[in-house]
Amino acid sequence: MNIKKKKGGEGGANWMDTYGDMVTLLLCFFVLLYSMSTIDEKKWQMIVMSFNPNVTSVPAQSIPQGPVGSNSSGGGPGDAPTEDQMEEILEEMYLALQDYISENDMSSSVAVTNGDGYVFLTFRDAVFFGPNSSVLLDEGKDVLREVAPMFLNAQEYIQEIRVMGHTAREIATQPNSPAFDRTLSANRAAGVGTFLQEQGIDGAKVITVGYGEWRPIDNNTSSEGRAHNRRVEIMVTGMELEEKLQSGLQQYETVVDDARTEIQKEWGLDPQ
User: Tens of pLDDT along 26-61?
Assistant: First the structure.
């Protein structure tokens, strides 16, 4: 009697092929997730210590090195600049501006000071503008062409470049016409800010403000005092300063006032 064997077929192992494909796809999926992930050093330490409570610290070399953009404190490409880097760059800018002012014998018309996270420049109005004009002089453009590269070299570390225009009272005992006063100072600040932007400065970092006659650094009773008050100021602030000034405008104005005080001392001015 012939016993027919049931055909088991060769498809019995087909499920293993499907399973293997699925595992391979899952592996690819997790590799893709890892490639897009960032590794936080503190969180990694917490994970390791949760599995082994006896571990008190995790050696740095045991922490997986994530892709560019990792949150570990390596200071690699793509990381935010550190405070030390920012301070060093701003100090280099300050020294370069000092050298430029000294080499061109401009100390009577341009002054620069610096502080924690900022560089502050003051230009007498005659550097940039004619009387009652907001049109940049060619000589003023030449000055800005020399200054702009110093800003550009530090642009990565700069939070803001604030350009502030100021006027002076024409008559010591009588305020200026508000419309003319505010417009002139605002247009002068805008003219300087626009020219800086045309030199390649990121427009998102440039802010222009016109204060009119209301932020004097000298008296308005003499022609020399009024000449000092007619000016353009540029305040360059580093990335970290924004965090230090979280209380807002009042604290920012305090920093600006401190910088103006240093300029007054340098020029020997008395606003009283």
Answer: 888 877 777 666 666 666 666 666 666 565 555 555
What residue has token string 């802010």? 207
Give me the long-range contacts of 143-147 (CB less than 8 A, separation at least 24).
143/110, 144/192, 144/195, 144/196, 144/199, 145/199, 146/100, 147/97, 147/100, 147/121
CB atoms within 10 A of CB 117: 22
CA distances from 50 to 46, 47, 58 (A): 6, 5, 12
| pLDDT score, position 77 | 47
As a whole number of angstroms, the distance between CA 230 and CA 97 comes to 21
Hey, where are the domains in the chain? 14-62, 83-267
Q: Which of 94, 95, 192, 96 is nearest to 136 (CA)?
A: 192
pLDDT at residue 147 tops 90 = yes
Is the full-model pTM beyond 0.85? no
For 83-267, which CATH superfamily applies? OmpA-like domain (3.30.1330.60)
Q: DSSP secondary-structure letter at 194? A: H
pLDDT of residue 18: 84
Give yes or no for a contact between 176 and 235, defined as CB atoms under 8 angstroms apart.
no
